[in-house]
Write a structure and sequence with these properties.
It is a single chain. The protein has one domain (64-410): Rossmann fold, CATH 3.40.50.1820. Helix content is 32%, strand content 12%. It is built from twelve helices and eight strands. Helix 3 (147-158) links the parallel strand 3 (133-137) and strand 4 (162-166). It is globular. The two termini are 31 Å apart.
Length: 411
């Protein structure tokens, strides 16, 4: 869903009992309602009081082992409402983004020549290959210029990482670089970007960072890749893991303002694609589009090879493969996020995978997490993600090499 934030929780997830890795056409994840009670501060699935928590932390599952990189989120006192957090997160003043970047186009699909536009920030050549490289992926109708992407890029760079701000197909004014549309299932594009720069610069360690729709993309790729090098970590903020539930939540009366915003932008982009590629995208016969689901039914599905919107939601959702994620992964969510929803089945899968830390806060809205200044950094999620990546890079967080250690720390 859109990229530019509810109670606290943390835990782990596991693969299917038969250990099968699902393919792209598998439809194993179904819809459902979120049933977990996240009011306590403990690991999911663990009886209350059996494990120590961070003092004063309302985040379930964040234990003493995580104390060196995790700090509790305390919402700004004027922004304890999810809608207020979401809206303020888009408009709150930020320092000017001053990092110089190298713009590069990367071919992500040889069949049709589709390319993605990336803005890269490289550390000096002598250390470039050995430094952690963070690939940042924006949300629906965002871009590499989205303020939250710039914010985390600046932090990651200052922490000594290489940074790649990736645009999904068409985004960042790159419509002419591909005859296709972008959608939530194109995890292969992220993989192509990683592979391209890894081959060129010999990158040894890569982390994926995604917001909202971008969070779904990077989680999906992580599930498809498993422990494949050079991937070493994943970090997401409010990922749209269950696409159908979140798309339908956008159509709820309280969320129509967000849905209308996305639809205006999506339809403007579609008309632009029709101008550039009139032989591919006829505009006649589509009729009015009044919801995200209707957009996916009338435009995404027929032009991107899906049977219908439901087929698209099943095949593109990272919910199908999160149990196959094999690298340290952080998922930050908020219980008062206006439109991101998780099914009970998806939540169970996340909690069963020992590589995943699932932290769910009481407040934060959608991708905002604006904290009180007395608690430190106002942009809590960005600061937390970078500290998590540093912990993984410095081997202060359990990785795939030691399953027993991972299980003992998160159970």
């Amino acid at each position: 869903m859109g990229g530019d934030e509810p109670r606290e929780h943390c835990s782990s997830f596991k693969s299917d009992a038969d250990g099968t890795r699902r393919g792209n056409n598998d439809k194993s994840a179904g819809p459902g309602e979120c049933e977990a009670d996240c009011s306590g501060a403990r690991i999911h699935g663990t009886p209350p009081g059996t494990l120590p928590d961070l003092e004063g932390s309302p985040h379930s599952g964040i234990r003493a082992e995580h104390a060196d990189w995790f700090t509790p989120f305390k919402a700004h006192p004027w922004l304890s409402n999810g809608h207020l957090q979401t809206i303020a997160g888009n408009f709150l003043w930020r320092p000017r983004f001053r990092l110089s970047a190298i713009a590069e186009t990367v071919e992500v699909d040889a069949a049709d020549g589709s390319c993605a536009l990336c803005h890269c920030h490289w550390q000096p050549v002598p250390v470039r290959a050995t430094r952690l490289t963070a690939v940042l992926v924006h949300g629906l109708e965002g871009s590499s210029e989205s303020r939250y992407i710039q914010g985390i890029a600046a932090r990651a760079w200052e922490a000594g990482m290489n940074v790649i701000r990736m645009n999904m197909r068409n985004c960042g004014d790159s419509d002419e670089l591909t005859p296709t549309l972008y959608h939530s299932g194109r995890s292969g594009d992220v993989g192509a970007v990683v592979s391209n720069f890894t081959a060129r610069f010999g990158l040894r360690r890569v982390a994926l960072v995604g917001y909202s729709m971008g969070g779904n993309l990077v989680l999906k790729l992580a599930g498809e890749w498993g422990g494949r090098p050079p991937l070493v970590a994943v970090a997401t903020v409010c990922p749209a893991i269950d696409l159908a539930l979140s798309a339908d939540a956008l159509h709820e009366p309280a969320n129509r303002i967000y849905e209308r915003h996305f639809l205006r932008s999506l339809m403007r982009r579609f008309r632009r694609k029709a101008e550039l590629f009139p032989g591919i995208y006829p505009t006649r016969g589509i009729g009015p589009v009044r919801s995200i689901r209707e957009f996916d039914q009338k435009i995404v599905a027929p032009f991107c090879g899906f049977r219908d919107a439901d087929d698209y939601y099943y095949r593109a959702a990272s919910a199908r493969v999160v149990d196959c994620i094999a690298v340290p992964t952080l998922i930050l969510c908020a219980k008062d996020d206006p439109f991101i929803r998780l099914s009970a089945e998806t939540r169970a899968r996340l909690l069963a995978n020992p590589r995943i830390v699932f932290a769910e806060t009481s407040h934060g809205g959608h991708c905002a997490f604006l904290s009180r200044r007395t608690a430190g950094d106002v942009h809590w999620a960005e600061a937390t993600l970078v500290r998590f990546l540093q912990a993984v890079n410095e081997s202060r967080f359990p990785g795939p090499a030691n399953d027993a250690a991972v299980a003992s720390q998160l159970q």
